[in-house]
Structure formats: C-alpha cells, structure tokens
Amino acid sequence: MSGCLPSNPWITDDVTYWAMNAPTVAAPTKLRVERWGFSFRELLDDPVGRGHFMDFLQKEFSAENLSFWEACEELRFGGQAQVPELVDAVYQQFLAPGAARWINIDSRTMEWTLEGLRQPHRYVLDAAQLHIYMLMKKDSYPRFLKSDIYKGLLEEAVIPLETKRRAFPFLRKPLHSSPSPALQSTPGEPPAQGETCIR
Q1: What InterPro entries does the record point to (predicted)?
Q2: pLDDT number for residue 131
C-alpha cells in the first residue's frame, strides 16, 4: 500500500493535494492525465482534460462538435427562464442553414430536433447532443489518445512526491504521560487507590 499523493489532506493539514487536483491547474498530475484515457466521460468531466481535447479538435477543424455539446449541457442545467433564448442561440449557431459552426448530424435526428424546436424545452436537443457525443467518442477521442498532444501531456505531467508523515498524528502523544499532574505518584510512593502506575 502507498500513501495518498502528495499527501492526505485530511490527516496532514497539507493542502497540496487539493491544489494539484483543482478544477483548473497549469500542469495536471500524471494520474489525472492517465484517467482521461479510461473513458471518454472521464475526459469530458475534467475541465482541464476537456480544454486539451478542444485544442486537439481545433487542429482537426472539428471543435464545433465539443462546443455544441457544451452548449447543450448549459441548456440542460441552466435556468428555466433562459431556455427559449439558449435554444434559439444554439440553433442559430450550430443547426440553422448556413450556420457559422454547423454540425453534421443525420437527417432523422435533425428532423426530430427541428420538430421539437417548435416548443422549446431544456431537453429538446438531447438527440442531437447524443449523436455528436457518440461521434466524438468513436472518432475523435481514440485519435486524441494517440495524438502527440496527449502523449506530450503524459510526458510533462507532474508526479507528486509522497510526503512521509505519520498516518495517525494523534498517536504522537507520549505513552507515559498522565492526564493530570495530581495523579502522578512520586518515586517510591505507592499509587493512590484507583490509580494505575505507568512505568
């Protein structure tokens, strides 16, 4: 078994672990970068990983897919009052004919989406979002893991040092201490009734 890297903040009062695993960091840890390779969802759920994935998609001229997915997430979890405005903004930017960041979805999904836009709600883009998600998962994500960007991140990732601290700091108390000086017996004097002599 190995200790928590760089240290367990719950027992050492060392906040380095929190700092290195914050939502946004300059240099992620090696364990964090490796976790992005476990699943596509792990990559998208990490703001740092998603940022590097966006850089990769921009080089492949397909960054609009991730931008559309993020816009759908904002619609799904945003405020109810902003739903009609957000739906219209997403449609104009990604789905409308001649849209600046037009996404490629199949005709049936587009038909369902356009039909749902007549009565916009927060889940109206779910079918289109799932289509783009699967497209990125099956096509872009495997290429990202094989790319120089990801390999470079693995090489430059931080490997924290394990701090050697006692696992149970409360055991640092001397074993021969007495809870009260009044209970300590003087040398050669028998302990008082009910008192245990600690040698």
Answers
A1: RGS, RGS6/7/9/11, RGS_sf, RGS_subdomain_2
A2: 97
Q: How far apart are the first and last CA of the chain?
A: 35
- The CATH number of 9-156 is 1.10.167.10
Per-residue confidence (pLDDT) for residue 159, from 0 to 100:
83
Sole residue written with tokens 């759908």 = 72
What does the pLDDT look like over 21-46, one tens digit per residue?
565 556 788 999 999 999 999 999 99
| pLDDT at res. 166 | 47
Contact predicate 15/21, CB 8 Å = no
User: What are the structural domain ranges in the chain?
Assistant: 9-156
Residue segments in the chain with a per-residue pLDDT below the cut of 50: 18, 163-167
